[in-house]
Amino acid sequence: MESLKTRYLSSIALFSVFLLAIQQFCYNFFFADDCHLLRYVTDSQNATTFKSQVHLLFDLHNEHRIIFPRLFTLLIYKFLGFIDWKIYNLVSLGYYLGICLIFQSFFEKAKLKYWYFLPVPLLLFQPIAHENIYWTISILQQVGNLFWAMLLFKLIVSSSKSSFYWAFVVGLVLTFTHGNGLFGLLIAATVLAIMRRWRQLVLWLIFVVLLFGIYFYQYKNGQNSNLSESLKHPDMLLRCVLTFWGSIAWQITNRYVITNIAAAFLGLIIVVSHSTVS
Questions:
Q1: Whole-number pLDDT of residue 86
Q2: In 3D, which of 166, 14, 191, 185 has the Cα closest to residue 101?
Q3: CA atoms within 13 A on the CB side of 162
Q4: Of 135-139, 150-154, 224-228, which gets the smallest average pLDDT?
Q5: Between the CA of residue 207 and those of 153, 159, 188, 195, what are the distances in Å?
Q6: Which residues contact 128 (CB under 8 A, 6 or more apart)?
Q7: What residues form DSSP beta bridges with 64?
Q8: CB of 268 within 8 A of CB of 246?
Q9: Arithmetic mean of pLDDT, 43-55
Q10: Do 137 and 112 contact (CB within 8 A), yes or no?
């Protein structure tokens, strides 16, 4: 019977193979809007006051306040003396391993054999999502957002008091890693309410209100953001949601119209199936 240590080492081994494979095609250059991280490092060197440093950190990237991705970039720069995008990207991919290990902890708690869990690392550690794998700012924001959200929910459902206190730290990092993290805070509050942990819920809601206030202080809409206009077209919002859920269709064909229809239809099947099972 395999030991717990062996099972976790197996996942780490799969991740190591994944890194070795993708490093063969990695390049030491930024991709797409990765340059915004580089710009922060440059601007921070020229900022002479504490106020200007804080302003640079809180400056919006589209709708997002990406404080921790920026700090992580600055840390890499301070450690190496320059930005080596191959190393930076390699370190960032640790978020994939973190997500995998959190998933594995759920399987371990359910006392399921490793073979049941094996599809998870095989789906996570494969190069089909190469555009995201080599897009450092996307890993630090979106993939990082998933990791911190999963960790937050794991801590919130725990009955340990220390886990609840650590949830505040994780919630802070989640919020200022990517704007979608704000929804994670609300989900955590809902979980506390379902579990009838009223005293902790009050403390959490105070924390959430404080973070929302800080986040939206001097907030400006991003370049593609128009909430009022979006709400005027609920049919398009629904189509976007369904297309997102069925986005695997883009791996089957790249014909724009056909793929969008297929993705929306597949998304509808997923949503209906999930509702039926629930």
A1: 82
A2: 14
A3: 0
A4: 224-228
A5: 16, 19, 12, 18
A6: 251
A7: 61
A8: yes
A9: 88
A10: no
Residue 110: pLDDT band with limits 50, 70, 90: confident
Q: Return the residue matching tokens 């809902």.
A: 190
The three-state secondary structure class of 15 is helix
- The amino acid occupying position 42 is T
In one letter, which amino acid is 254? N
C-alpha 221/C-alpha 86 separation (Å) is 33
Phi then psi for 64, rounded to 5 degrees?
A: -115, 140
The contacts of residue 74 (CB under 8 Å, 6+ apart) are 40, 41, 44
- Lowest-pLDDT range, 29-33, 56-60, 117-121, 186-190? 29-33
Amino acid at 260: N
Cα–Cα distance for residue pair 122/17, rounded to 1 Å: 11
Residues 6+ apart with CB under 8 A from 277: none
Nearest to 65 by CA among 211, 175, 186: 175
From start to end of the chain, where are the E strands? none
Give residue 274's pLDDT. 67
Distance of CA 43 to the CA centre of its chain: 26
pLDDT at 196 over 90: yes
DSSP line for 83-106: --HHHHHHHHTHHHHHHHHHHHHH
* Four-residue CA torsion sign, 66, 123, 86, 27: negative
